[in-house]
């Protein structure tokens, strides 16, 4: 049976003539697609393409899925294999076929691969607030239009604890200036898929870090009064009209950290900003619920993990003993 690969969240046939699809079916298709985030949908599509490129056929059977797992057991991270298995499972479920990835044999095989080949997840280093200050100072000394944008982008991302996919979607219309700082509305996020909106307050700072000031300076210099706040800048210094791509944030952070001469640049990624806000805020005495609200974290366990990271040397059993020997 030749099955065309379709969006994993729709069961409606895309092969049907357009005049045979009723308005309610089109609306139903839109709602089904909206039920899954764009990032998840992209990841699932990539997984399905990988399976087909390997030689798999959809719908698949248990034997084929097992061969696929065994073929990549030593080539891919077990977490990547688990994601691809989930994508295959979702495709079969949404298309109305029996799910071969759900069989006990397949699941036990994946568990064995995870136990034998699993490696610790590499986590981005949390950027301390003091080093965020060094980055801000280095960029302010540059004075270029790009440096103004990068300074505002990194400070807003850090102190707003934004995900990179969120900060690049911010619009000028989302900003509300207040005497204490700036209020920024995020219409939708990873933890707000229903679009209820998240408002984050970012106060003025007293030292090198002052996100509202950096944001105001950038918007004024770039003459941004509507649309995307953070936009691409070409090599001639011309500002684009579209929002910059979220993947650009990693390179911007790397270049800025290098400019500030931080010694751990290879350990940084865009997630270092969110992680850094959480750990630095806790060390500064911020309450658990305040950290959770600023980052828009859904689960307490995520925030607790950042707090434990911040406490590694402060609340340390060995440290209590070593301090007594001084």
TrEMBL record:
One family name in Pfam for this protein: Phage_integrase
Tyr recombinase domain sequence ranges: 122-321
A GO biological-process term: DNA integration
Positions of the Core-binding (CB) domain: 19-96
Record key words, sorted: DNA integration, DNA recombination, DNA-binding
Biased composition range(s): Polar residues: 8-20
Claim: DNA-binding is one of the keywords in the record: yes
Protein name in UniProt: Integrase
Species, as recorded: Glaciimonas immobilis
